[in-house]
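Most newcomers find our protein records easier to grasp once they have seen one. To make this concrete, we reproduce a full record directly below:

…
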Amino acid sequence: MTNATHPFDALMDITARPEVVFVRGAGSYLWDDNRNRYLDFVQGWAVNPLGHSPAVVAEALAAQAKRLLTPSPAFYNGPSLKLAKALVEQSCFDQVFFANSGAEANEGAIKLARKYGAKYKNGAHEIITFEGGFHGRTLATMSASGKKAFEPLFEPKVPGFRKARLNDIESVRKLISPSTVAVMLEPIQGEAGVWPATDAFMQELRALTQQRGLLLIVDEIQTGIGRTGKLFAYQHAGIAPDIMTLGKGIGGGVPLAALLATGHASCFDHGDQGGTFNGNPLMCAAGIAVLEQVGQPDFLKSVVDSGLFLESELQRLSARHGLGDIRGRGLLLALDLKMPIGAAVVAQAFAAGVLINAPQPDTLRFMPALNVSREEISAMIDCLDAVLAKVGAARRVA
């Protein structure tokens, strides 16, 4: 696939993409090379907490690029130390390892849990994960995921992951054996269609893992960095996990992720973990800029307020069109369409200049910038209202 301006065929064909090339972004908007503007409620799959090309991130990157890009991970650098300290101070964790992607951070969490099992639990290595979970696209993180589409891919899978059911503590309890070292979950299963773990379940899980001497790992790649109205989603339940992973939003649009652990769980020996670009000062400078903005109490309150407004508008829309429930928390929400029309809705919204996402055929997911305005929410709702009316009419005719 190619045209006179853009050689699309030079990129490996790994997903269906519209023949549109984006060239500029600002806040909640993207522009393509034909000057068409799009209101973005995907934001790179929750990657841009401050919207597209926020000034604070651009300025931090520009200033750091003039000083030092990377000295090698064999040496300390100032931004990585500052960002690690800030994350530790605002969480229940003691140490941080920086990575380049959420999958890499989750891979690190799996390795850390297995190292812990080797050191302290007679070689226990199995990790209980959950049906519907999504932890990344490396071989180990795909194996840890509970995504049905992954099951036939890239066999043989990495062994050692047993699947429980979300919000069913007995299903977890039944899977625990002498080989179990940890339980790993997303506080909200994003790719499955925005299915939250209840606060009560998170509390039960923490109690069970502590009782049985297991590590509790929270994958906050999508829910972390303010997305749910608290800096980290585990804080809603009032618990203290042993390990947490961050990605997406922490970099504000650049490749940055993190593996955090308590002192109790931090057991890597020298040489166990590393990476050429991990913790480089350029990316960490962006992370500092993001955290300084998102970590402010007033900013987090605005996320809660915007999330409640978006939720109420989606509920009104659902009632009008006879659709289903609204799921999620803060500014990670889903609308149950009750019909497999997600792809059609996304395509028609795109044609109308609004970007939304359908992680499942019957579900729409909303991941706007955390500083999205009420006017932008209302504009998206108006577009979606018109699209749903059109799609619904077409289905009735069919």
Remarks:
- The chain has a mean pLDDT of 95.
- Residues 297-321 form the longest helix (25 residues).
- The CA atoms of residues 24 and 31 lie 5 Å apart.
- The longest strand covers residues 180-185.
